[in-house]
Fold this protein.
Amino acid sequence: MSFLARNVLRSTLRATRATKSRAYSAAQGSGSFAAEQAAIEHHAAGTTDLWRKISFYGCFPAVAVCVAWVYNAEAEHAAHEEHRKAENGGHLPEVPAFEYMNRRVKPFPWGMNTLFYNPHTNKDMEAEA
Amino acid sequence: MTKNYIKMNNKIKFQYFPYHLVDPSPWPILLSFSLLTFTTGAVLYMHGFNNGGLVLTLGFLLTSSGMALWFRDVISEATLLGCHTREVKNGLMLGVFLFIVSEVFAFLSVFWAFFHSSLSPAIEIGGSWPPLGITPLDPFAIPLLNTILLLSSGAFITYGHHALIAGNRKAAIDGTLLTIIFAILFTGLQYYEYSEAGFTMADGVYGSAFYASTGLHGLHVIVGTIFILVGFVRIVNYHLTKSHHQGFEAAIAYWHFVDVVWLFLFLAVYFWGGA
Amino acid sequence: MSESAETTSKYVLQTVGFDARFPNTNQTRNCFQNYTDYFKCITAKGEDFAPCKQFKKAYNSLCPNEWISKWDDQRENGTFPASLEP
């Protein structure tokens, strides 16, 4: 009698444990890992197509339009700079030596100019020193 | 004796729990000292000490090679040893999100510095933002293109990610590769903007705030590009499967974070702060 | 007693009144604003225009003398950080 009771208890315990750890089991059937995985893959196939369309028919045209716009804007800027240079006798008007501009308490470890130094747009601090 | 050994060995090879108990590893302590060397080298270099550059280079090499070796171990644990169970993956992803939260606060402090200086400009810069003598960059030129590039790369990485889950290898490779190309384009355009800008990092608080915020973001773009590149190489080498690609998902989360930070930078620093 | 009252009436000690634009203890911006306003005022109306004097009084009472002489030098060199055009 007690043997039977123990067996019933064991099998119920096993059954509850099995439901709990169902997420980890690879058993087939609805709610199993394999079924869940198949559903995810099926869903992903659809979203892949959606994002392929967004990428190729949304992003690429947007980038192309933006490149054209930026090309024009940059060309305008360059023309404006040329105009300012021509007005000022071949070079850009000197920026007043405001106290907060071109601060150098000591040189950078590599010299007086910044790492992005450009002689056309920045003051040559190497020549200042 | 031998029999006993086999028995014991089998026992320790089977675990009754889903967690990953890591093996002893030299990399944490090695990286601690590498990072100490790196930061010390940076301080020595920037303060003009003898051989500061050498210590900095050594620190950088030690840190990057130490990271490569550590990540190599993590990749073997994930790809070959099967240590990354669902439970472990949850923990790893929680770690990634906590890391991103800490990054959010790092950027918050830089934005704080920017708004502190720009919302009530000091009299030393004439009480105006941008100050006299600074010609800010036009937000609707290259910065706008950069915004579109980053947003597009976010779409490409989603395309690659969903293709990976669907088991579409070719599309996964295409999407990830496009992301990397656009990320490199972004970095290149930022370099161009930096060298064409009429102001430098040493031009008052405007220059400092501009280059500190956009520069920190630029560094994150470079790190994110490497992160996605690692995912790309692992896709090509069949490391990543439909259901098991946590490192790649971490890279995607990081990339979206970098993307969002750029949107805030574009709105605050380029558009509002340059008007 | 009456003697000292006479002296004070000769030298009127005056500082600037409250300005709602600068309600805080820190009056740095108030000083700077009055300095720039004075030079904008005299550029527009001429040095002898009496109402401009209030700005001069205000910045002389608010600003440290070192700041005033530094800004005067900067104006001479054309490196004053704000526009003084009215």
